[in-house]
Amino acid sequence: MPGNSFGQAFRVTTWGESHGPALGAVIDGCPARLPLTEAHIQAALDKRRPGKGGAAETTRKEPDRVEILSGVFQGMTTGTPISLMIRNQDAKSRSYDHLKDLFRPGHGDYTYLKRFGIRDYRGGGRSSGRETVARVAAGAVAQLVLDLAGIEIYAYTAGLGRVYVETKNLEVIEDNRLFCPDMDAAKLMEEQVLAAKKAGDSLGGIVEVVATGVPAGLGDPVFDKLDGEIAKALMSVGAVKGVEIGSGFKAADMTGSENNDPISPKGFLSNNAGGILAGISNGDEIIARAAIKPIPSIGIEQDTIDITGKPVKLSVKGRHDVSAIPRIVPVIKAMMQLVLADHLLRRFSLEITDNCNLIKDEQNGRLI
What we know:
Layout: E1 5-6, E2 11-16, E3 22-28, H1 38-48, E4 66-70, E5 72-73, E6 76-77, E7 82-87, H2 109-116, H3 132-149, E8 152-160, E9 163-164, H4 183-199, E10 205-212, H5 226-235, E11 240-245, H6 256-259, E12 263-264, E13 267-268, E14 276-277, E15 280-281, E16 286-292, E17 302-305, E18 311-314, H7 329-355, E19 360-361, E20 366-367
Antiparallel strand pairs: 1-2, 2-3, 3-7, 4-7, 5-6, 8-9, 8-10, 10-16, 11-16, 12-13, 14-15, 17-18, 19-20
Helix pairs in contact: 1-3, 3-7, 5-7
């Protein structure tokens, strides 16, 4: 099936299905001599891991333990393809047997069958949100490249269940289940999640991602604009239905004098551009927002058809998230990591590779 690879200089191919033996990623183009262990990747995966007990989350319990199969020797990347694997351990495929001849509203069942003539009905197969575990693993590796340039990325919940943040304190996003920068808003969001769960329904929301320390000059005109690459990356996540960069759709209501970012000797005085001008980073913070649709698997009865075209009433039962948030937050972060690592290496491949030699030897306390 085409469309499983992303990036040029830092290229990632993901593989696996929701109810297959495992999922994973193959990364080609990662520079050599970067320190990489399974523990480094695991820290990112644990933030996305299902079954942690949040009201919005599925009860499917997956340890999501990553295994590095290649591309690392003695704790360092070798410059060869890095293969990562995460085994499925709590799949219950029989729960989907009654859906094998039905098309679930909001899912890819109908379109996958039309495209390929076959579909994996066990949890959605390749179209399942479970596929994103591989993206998060690859994003953790990409961050090693970004660390060389001092680039940091933050992702958080900006809205959920029609509750939106009023303050943004990045220091508290790890202090609540929803990765929300506004603790008061987080409490209201939790209430909305519980109400939707009780009603058998689901919720959508907004995830914002910010990249700091990005140098000016990343991105290629005309069809590889950096904002276009970010939009594609975020839109490739199954639950994302819209993307904004900077002021986004609000720009349509502004005048030129309002939307333009004045420039001073010290830099830009505002950031309606979201850190990107003419498709190229301008050195300011890159800011993007992704609109997340409600989870389509809901307990409320819906109209659909079976594979013969016969109308059917369907109520989806099982272990489903009430909202893709918060588990999609690390996925959005990972996609930004992949885009920026790819463009950083496309722009500064020789410099970054050389910098990889400046790795601190912890035992000897020197640079090697």
